[in-house]
Amino acid sequence: MPTLICVILSILIYFVMVEHIKGNNEKLEESVTCSKCNHEAHNSFEFCPECNEKLKEACHACQKEIHRNWRYCPYCGDVKGVEE
Ligand SMILES: [Zn+2]
Ligand SMILES: [Zn+2]
Predict the structure, then answer these.
(1) How far from 10 is each of 16, 17, 18, 21, 53, CA to CA, in Å?
(2) Total structural domains in the chain?
(3) Is residue 71 part of a domain?
(4) Please, which residues have CB less than 5 A from ligand 2, an ion?
(5) How many angstroms separate the alpha carbon of residue 34 from the centre of ligand 1?
(6) Is 23 inside any structural domain?
(7) What is the pLDDT at residue 37?
């Protein structure tokens, strides 16, 4: 019986590790690169901490705050910055 407990424990530890690695990857994806100085800034920042460049602007279609270096608005799928 102790072998079974060991196997169950190692499976649990494996899943905890996988979740931990996933969490770390999500953190990396939360950063954006400043278009002016290439500094990595956190997703929630309004301005670059290095050069004070504005990182966000309002989507012209849905008015949500989106990052300037994103090509498409993730909220409405509109191509950013195209006003035709
Ligand atoms: Zn910058
Ligand atoms: Zn939008």
Answers:
(1) 10, 10, 12, 16, 48
(2) 1
(3) yes
(4) 59, 61-62, 73, 75-76, 78
(5) 5
(6) no
(7) 95
- Tell me how far apart the alpha carbons of residues 28 and 8 are, in angstroms, rounded to a whole number: 31
C-alpha 23/C-alpha 12 separation (Å) is 17
Q: Is residue 15 part of a domain?
A: no
| Domain, as residue range, for 68 | 30-79
Residue 45 CB: number of other CB atoms within 10 A?
15
What's the whole-model pTM score?
0.52
43 within a domain of the structure (yes/no): yes
pLDDT digits (tens, 9 = 90+) for 25-80: 655 567 888 989 999 998 888 999 999 999 998 998 999 988 887 889 999 998 86
| Statement: residue 14 has pLDDT above 80 | yes
CA dihedral 44, 50, 53, 57 (to 10 degrees): -10
| Confidence label for 84 from pLDDT (cuts 50, 70 and 90) | very low
